[in-house]
Design a protein that fits this description.
This protein is mainly α and about 180 residues long. It starts with about 35 loop residues before the first helix and ends in a 46-residue tail after the last helix.
């Protein structure tokens, strides 16, 4: 979500939990699950860096990198880890996305000794003024229009239950959001 100044806000911490080392909880959107979650070996904060890679890809392509109507096939694709990037994907963003979508935790950005600094030093993000960003001194590319603080007109309307609406399914893997 965007705040009134156009800065990102994270939401939906319904299943969030604080862990010291590992957990074995399986929850989340299937397309975003990290390989270590699927393998049930226990997982930690590395899954959040994986998820950032998925989110980055989806924001740039309009769909997640691993898609399939069959859940077991989807999990197989995640475990195989083969990501196809369109030619329009920025090459520096592609390098960072690949570093985030690395199954090996000893090589995944965010999990290394440098932690988040590795991402900040990537070619795609290296020109970001992190101090100004934190202070909200940079101009956001999108500033939402709203009439009052409780205005929800920028959000899609969703029915209260699945029975009230048909959930759209993917048509094919080439353009999964064609009918949305």
């Amino acid at each position: 979500m965007l705040d009134k100044c156009g800065y990102l806000k994270l939401t939906d911490f319904g299943f969030a939990k604080k862990i010291d080392f590992k957990t074995y909880t399986l929850c989340g959107t299937p397309e975003y699950l990290a390989p270590e979650v699927l393998l049930n070996k226990g997982h930690g904060k590395g899954v959040d860096w994986w998820t950032l890679g998925i989110l980055m890809y989806e924001m740039m392509c309009g769909h997640p990198p691993f898609i399939d109507d069959d859940i077991m096939e989807l999990y197989k694709k995640i475990l195989e880890g083969k990501v196809s990037f369109p030619r329009t994907y920025d090459k520096n963003a592609k390098t960072l996305t690949k570093k985030l979508l690395t199954a090996d935790l000893t090589k995944r950005y965010g999990c290394l000794k440098g932690e988040a600094e590795d991402l900040k030093r990537s070619r795609w993000l290296m020109d970001t003024n992190w101090i100004k960003l934190q202070k909200k001194e940079l101009s956001a590319p999108i500033i939402p229009l709203f009439s009052e603080e409780s205005d929800t007109s920028n959000f899609d309307s969703y029915p209260e239950s699945d029975e009230e609406a048909e959930i759209p399914r993917y048509i094919d893997n080439k353009d999964p959001f064609h009918n949305f």
